[in-house]
Design a protein that fits this description.
heterodimer; A: 237 residues; alpha/beta; Rossmann fold; six-stranded mixed beta sheet; four-stranded antiparallel beta sheet; B: ABC transporter involved in vitamin B12 uptake, BtuC; two-stranded antiparallel sheet; 14 helices; binds adenosine-5'-triphosphate; binds magnesium ion
Chain lengths: 237, 329
């Protein structure tokens, strides 16, 4: 079943079009990756899906209904949660309080929140060890885990992950992608933006390649893997 | 040794001190100053909720303080309502006006918000000053009653008024404490941190900002109503920008975005300026540079400075403990 569909979406910053007439489709249970160099338009696309930016043209459909024009908090309630690339946390709150903020939309369901908290701690045991520590004291990798964990607390149907591997050591990147696969297996559809094409394509079902705000290539992971241009540009082999 | 100085004990000691101090001082004038400081601090707590915890610096706060005071004054003097009913309604009126102002003002952000609310504050001043037939204009409003008796308890002595104001102040601080430590409070902090992040967690920032704004006007209204009943004479100058910047100074010196900042800052400055009164307007020659230095070296005021030092100390001792344990094991 198709969960998300972008129909010829264009996004402008002032007069400048950062994203031009892109079409994206994500089906239930998939991991879909957006590849592209710096400034290609991945984050802009994510912000448009999550409602932080309004498209100048085209529509965004989620579960068959248009969501462009809805406010970001409504979109979270509908089931799309974004984990932004700057992995911003609440530095003055503890790790656990950060996670609880992620469960904001379920704030009245105490038992569900407890359950989600347990799941996040199972996925990232290090967060459990540091649950009472201030979030500002976490390492980069732990911060990313906390950002993802916080997004999971909202129990999204579709999770948008913007460059989760950026700035992480290779070993941590590997762990991160294993965790993402795990989250996906547990029933969350994932849309991922990445520069690390190798790692991303190895867990993704399909991908889109952005160049200067346009989608230039799309295909299944296998197709993209075997595409010479992509190998040259993003995999370096 | 250090266990005696826990947060809880310190708070209890301060409350006890506040209750016995009139007997220690035995000085009517100081009692008057302390009562006023309590009233100001309530207003500053309101400002802190919005500017400190939510990150929206409203410069209309003195205006809402005045609305609270004038509501009480007009309701008791002109509408001849009973004191307690008026005391209840005054903050509500302030909140209603606050809601309307908030809906419009919160369409702006940052310095635009500050400028916009500064204008609102000035408009409130002009309305009070020029609407002679309602507010008495520059002549002000006289004859506001003190709190009416509750059974055998009367509020006609400075001492009883001090206790009345003190109890209301403590209740207000308790309320702010509960708000800040609730999910609502953390929502405000989330908004201050990053509105975009708050939005992407599903927080309706528009609703919560308005809530914070209206809550802040509630405290301004309570403080204003107390002021009216305590001084019993009010004029348009209580809505003027000088009062606004007094509030802001108290807050910044005490510690913006901290729980004890408003009370620390207000008492410190009010008491200091009483003692430096012989310097008259030259006081500003001392306060100005001090304030500048404080903002540069401790943006979260005196309380922020103490908290930072305290946390550093704690981290050091816990690190030392860890080292010791590591050596043992
Ligand atoms: N707020 C903004 N105002 C104006 N232009 C912007 C803004 N944000 C992004 N852009 C521009 O839009 C284009 C796309 O940016 P975007 O952040 O979507 O790229 P990206 O693919 O996420 O890049 P990266 O991999 O570096 O994160 C860039 O040319 C960028 O300069
Ligand atoms: Mg980006």
């Amino acid at each position: 079943m198709r969960v998300l569909k972008l129909n010829s979406v264009t996004v402008n910053y002032g007069k400048y079009s950062a994203v031009r007439q892109i079409d994206i489709e994500v089906s239930e249970g998939e991991i879909v990756v957006l590849l592209g160099a710096n400034g290609a338009g991945k984050t802009t696309t994510f912000k448009t899906i999550s409602g932080l930016l309004k498209p100048t043209g085209g529509t965004v459909n989620f579960e068959g209904a248009p969501i462009n024009g809805k406010s970001p908090d409504r979109i979270v309630q509908a089931g799309i949660v974004q984990c932004a690339e700057d992995r911003k946390l609440f530095p003055q709150m503890s790790v656990q309080q950060n996670l609880m903020m992620g469960g904001y939309i379920h704030r009245s369901k105490k038992t569900q929140l407890k359950e989600s908290l347990k799941e996040v701690y199972e996925l990232f045991p290090i967060l459990y060890d540091k649950r009472d520590e201030s979030a500002r004291l976490l390492s980069g990798g732990q911060q990313q885990m906390l950002a993802i964990g916080r997004a999971l607390m909202a129990k999204p149907k579709l999770m948008l992950l913007d460059e989760p591997s950026i700035g992480l050591a290779p070993l941590v990147v590997e762990q991160m992608f294993t965790s993402i696969q795990h989250i996906n297996k547990d029933g969350t559809t994932i849309l991922l933006a990445e520069q690390n094409a190798n790692a991303a394509l190895s867990i993704a079902d399909k991908g889109y390649v952005f160049e200067n705000g346009r989608i230039v290539i799309e295909g299944t992971s296998e197709e993209l893997f075997s595409n010479d241009e992509i190998r040259k540009a993003y995999i370096g082999a | 040794m250090s266990s005696i100085f826990t947060k809880k004990n310190t708070v209890i000691a301060l409350i006890v001190l506040a209750f016995v101090i009139p007997f220690v001082l035995q000085n009517q004038y100081y009692l008057h100053v302390l009562t006023l400081a309590c009233i100001w601090s309530i207003a500053v707590y309101g400002l802190n909720l919005l500017a400190g915890f939510t990150g929206y610096l409203s410069l209309a706060h003195a205006g809402f303080f005045a609305i609270g005071a004038y509501s009480l004054g007009l309701l008791t003097v002109k509408a001849e309502l009973s004191f307690w009913l008026a005391f209840l309604v005054a903050p509500i009126i302030t909140m209603i006006i606050g809601t309307f102002v908030g809906i419009i003002a919160l369409r702006t952000k940052e310095h635009f918000f500050a400028i916009y609310t500064l204008c609102v504050g000035y408009i409130i001043y002009l309305i009070i000053d020029k609407w002679d037939s309602l507010t008495g204009g520059v002549r002000g409003l006289i004859g506001i009653p003190s709190p009416a008796n509750i059974g055998p308890i009367s509020f006609d002595t400075p001492l009883s008024q001090y206790y009345f104001v003190l109890v209301v102040t403590l209740l207000c601080i308790l309320m702010v404490y509960r708000i800040v430590h609730s999910l609502t409070g953390r929502t405000f902090i989330a908004i201050r941190n990053s509105e975009e992040l708050a939005l992407s967690l599903g927080i309706s920032t528009a609703k919560n900002k308005l809530l914070s704004f209206v809550l802040s006007t509630f405290f301004a209204g309570v403080a204003g109503a107390l002021y009216g009943s305590f001084i019993r004479f009010i004029g348009p100058e209580i809505s003027y920008t000088t009062i606004m910047f007094d509030f802001l100074t108290y807050l910044i010196v005490g510690g913006i975005g901290t729980l004890s900042g408003p009370i620390v800052g207000t008492f410190l400055i009010v008491l200091l300026s009483q003692n430096l009164q012989f310097l008259q307007d030259y006081r500003m020659l001392i306060f100005g540079p001090l304030l500048t230095l404080l903002i540069i070296f401790s943006p979260r005021g005196i309380v922020g400075f103490v908290l930072t030092k305290y946390h550093q100390h704690q981290r050091k001792t816990s690190a030392v403990l860890k080292d010791a344990r590591a050596k043992e094991g």
